[in-house]
Amino acid sequence: MDAASAPQHPIRWQDLGAELAFTQDSSGRYSSFYWQCQLKRPDASPSVLTHQNPEHEKLKPVAADNYLETIHRVMERRVPENYHCLFVYEDKTFPVELAISPILKHEGRVTEVLVMGRLLEQDGLTRTNRLTGTLPHNNYNDLVTQIARNIRRNPYQNLLTKISRNIRLTLDLETIWQQTVDSLGAEVRVTRCLIIAYDAETQTFRVESEYCEPNYRSMLGERFPIDRTPYLEQAISVDEPLAFDYIQDSSFEERSVLVISTFYQNKRNALICLQQCDHRRHWNDAEIELVRELAAHVGTAIAHATLYKELEEAGMRAEEASRLKSEFLASTSHELRTPLNGIIGFMKLILDGMADDPAEQREFLEEAHRSALHLLNLINDILDIAKIEAGRMELNFTEVPLETLFEDVEKKTRPMAQQKNLSFEIQMPPSREPIVLYGNYQRLLQVMLNLVGNAVKFTHEGGITISAEVVKRQMFVDGKEFPGLVKVRVADTGIGVPLDKLDMLFKNFSQVDIGRTRSYGGTGLGLAISQRLVETMGGKIDFFSMGESLGSTVTFEVPIVQIPLMTRGKKAKNSL
User: Which letter does DSSP use for residue 566 in this model?
Assistant: First the structure.
């Protein structure tokens, strides 16, 4: 380091009690100096080396560039720092512990630093080694060599160890995010430190956690598209840290940025982003190495916390499913007993000769037959949902004429509507050609009967309208391409569904109101089964209701073999 003679400042350094004290400018030149040293003979009295003795110029840091970089950082940020490094004097090398503080001039400028410290002796180093376990136990020279290696490798090693230890102590994802940004942001002294999530489907970023200095705009919770921040877009395509010393036209005042992706098993799960807003900043090798190593630890911690959260949610879902199944079984046991008791009761009346004449006997048999069919439908529902849950529902796809399907539905459901004095109308799409669907006829019929049966069951006045609409939209089902679909709509003027219960309708073993279901009969599985069947055939099903007593509408989609030639108006079948 360069040294030049300068007038000794009127400071009594020995009064401060420091072993080593001096002031330096940005080039490392001593402007004042005091050292109470004892290097030549341990049993000799310590000698005092001051600025007046030219020998003080021989005291120099081994890693001069790193040392000067620390001085510049302290002067620029006006924040003191602790610093451990190796100094050389004549032919001896020894470690020192320093406190480097900026000297604020009267004009507000910082042109010098005050450095105070002490030599680390062998006992002190050995004690430090026992506490940290980071240094070898061999001898003093080995300890000094290891310190030199640590200094050159990464001066932020202690910070890295601290953050890594803290995030390993928790499996809460938000805690991991916040501890990382708080520790990293404060220690590296940036304006902002962010954890950013990336959604590949929507091509957007979201700031999940933030460290932000006062007087700067917070970015927490911000969501923005990928093309709005080019440096983040670039970061998700590379594995290494990206350092930008100057950002132009930034949205959040950032002038310098250091960003890196976090990974676990080659899968990206977040980004760590450091931002400097008050000045341009050159990111040094130590800071880049810090975020590189930290990203590996954070990526693993995020993956473990995410897995734990998923397992926790899966456990909660399993508990909820178990509860719903218990409620379902309680309801179903009632539904199964009712028709079974009816069959047994009417058959016993006949066997006991309680029928007065053949007409009454036939009436008993018809009632037993109806109860048997109702019981069969309940059992079929339970078996269907069991097959669907087990993944054993296999369907054969064929061409299904829409008009044939609607005629079969009308034949089976119109009498039910007539018994309740409800209007019943079917509206076919106005086409000059037959409309042919692609699916499984029996399962499409099952879906239609479920939907229309529910509409009749829960409607007391008004009526039911069945309609269909041809939609031109390319679809791929069963490995085949189709030019469009038919949207079937079943609307009623019945009791409707509360808005806060709509999301429960398609859940397995879930019923909007068990009491209501019992009063109307049925297991409440019809919609869940219909949804799975429609989805298996490549479509989707939706339920709409404006609330209680406001009716409801169910729609589902089925692929169409070809788009027919359409005409104007609606083609309605007979209505009641």
Answer: B
Q: Classify residue 249 as exposed, middle or buried by CB count within 10 Å of its CB (0-12, 13-18, 19+).
A: exposed
Start-to-end C-alpha separation, the chain: 104
- Sequential DSSP letters for 218-229: --TT-EEEGGG-
| Per-residue tokens: 178 | 């916040």
CA 447/CA 536 separation, integer angstroms: 12
How much is the average pLDDT of 405-413? 93
Q: Please check whether residue 62 is in contact with residue 39, taking contact to mean a CB–CB distance below 8 angstroms.
A: no
Is residue 510 predicted with pLDDT exceeding 70? no
Q: Which helix (H) or strand (E) holds 36?
A: strand 30-37
What's the whole-number mean pLDDT along residues 463-482? 92
Residue 549's region, left for phi above 0, alpha for psi from -120 to 50, else beta, is left
pTM over 0.90: no
Question: Residue 176 and residue 183: Cα distance in Å, rounded?
Answer: 11
Residue with tokens 């004892």: 38
What CA–CA distance (Å, rounded) separates 504 from 516? 14
By residue count, the chain amounts to 576
| Confidence (pLDDT) at 273 | 93
Question: Which DSSP string do the residues of 429-445 spell out, in sequence order?
Answer: --BSS--EEEE-HHHHH
| Distance between CA atoms of residues 223 and 417, nearest Å | 52
**pLDDT at residue 50 is higher than 70:** yes
In eight-state DSSP terms, residue 352 is T
Q: Which of 84, 90, 18 is nearest to 48 (CA)?
A: 18
C-beta of residue 20 within 8 angstroms of C-beta of residue 116: yes
d(CA 46, CA 33) in angstroms, rounded, equals: 16
Whether the Cβ atoms of residue 297 and residue 489 lie closer than 8 Å to each other: no
CA 372 to chain centre: 50
Contact (CB, 8 A) for 512 and 504: yes
Residue 294 C-alpha from the chain's centroid: 20
pLDDT of residue 5: 46
Q: What is the pLDDT of residues 482-491, one digit of tens each?
A: 999 999 999 9
Q: 364: burial class by Cβ within 10 Å (0-12, 13-18, 19+)?
A: middle
Q: Is 60 helix (H, G, I), strand (E, B) or coil?
A: strand
> Hey, what are 112's tokens?
């010098």
DSSP state of 13: G
pLDDT at residue 122 in the model: 52
Fill in the amino acid letter for 229. T
Q: Which among 446, 443, 437 has a CA at the least distance from the CA of 471?
A: 437
Nearest-5° angle of CA 558, CA 469, CA 414?
A: 85
The helix (run of H) or strand (run of E) holding residue 37 is strand 30-37
Strand-pair category, 30-37 with 47-50: antiparallel
- Could you tell me how far CA 481 lies from the centroid of its own chain? 34
- Tokens standing for residue 316: 């909660």
Cβ(93)–Cβ(76) under 8 Å? no
pLDDT at 508: 55
Q: Where are the beta strands (DSSP E) in 423-500?
A: 423-428, 436-439, 463-471, 475-477, 480-482, 484-492
- Mean pLDDT, to the nearest integer, of 289-295? 87
Contact by Cβ (8 Å): 441, 398: yes
